[in-house]
């Protein structure tokens, strides 16, 4: 445990990363639940799911999790039940919701199938489990954000372009983060200059799919939002 302003430890000292490789997800694997899956999404809209048990290994060198194409990279990994609904979001504000049943289980060393069809210049930034009771938070690089009920995103077939999830303009930049949130949760907003803003999601307006969002972070000239993360709590209710 280190102070907030400490530089931290380089991950290459803990995990044998290849040149240009970086961590994209951390999954709690204290137990490998029977029937639970890891669901992968790539920047080019490819998805795959593999049983959690396939990764039950203590090899320090790691295992192949997904075969990526040369022009692609992993964006998000989530744990699913095998019959959930998935929503994928692109940086241009498009979103598609489809049944996880549309994606058959595959082995570790496979490339996956098309989850979302992207327009030229677009790319997937996130995916999450979708429920009608859930709420999706969108945050753009300009520091604007909104909450939108997932009930507004109707289920489609896997592989389509989806519908507009957040209206993007030149002033709004692009979507940098999108994930489900609860009414009492808090988030951390990280800027390109290294500043962090902590706020409750209830401070962010609930808007429809075609809205552009409201200001959630005031940025200096030339500064952008680069990442957003939920504030996690331990079992004792303390911040993690």
Descriptive overview:
The chain has no helices and 15 strands. The mean pLDDT is 86. It has a single domain (35-230), classed as Neuraminidase. It starts with 36 loop residues before the first strand and ends in a 10-residue tail after the last strand. The chain is mainly beta and 240 residues long. The strands form four sheets. Strands 3-1-2-6 form a four-stranded antiparallel sheet, with no helix packed on it. The chain has a four-stranded antiparallel sheet with strand order 7-4-5-10, with no helix packed on it.
Task: Please give the largest β-sheet.
Answer: 4 strands, antiparallel
Radius of gyration: 18 Å
Assembly type:
single chain
Tell me the domain tally.
Answer: 1
Give the low-confidence spans: none
Strand content: 25-35%
CATH architecture assignment name: 6 Propeller
Level of helix content? under 10%
Report strand order across the widest sheet: 3-1-2-6
Number of strands: 15
Structural class: mainly beta
At the first level of CATH, what is the class? Mainly Beta
The rough form would be described as: globular
Average of the residue pLDDT scores:
86
The CATH superfamily name is DNA gyrase/topoisomerase IV, subunit A, C-terminal
CATH topology: Neuraminidase
How many angstroms separate the termini?
11 Å
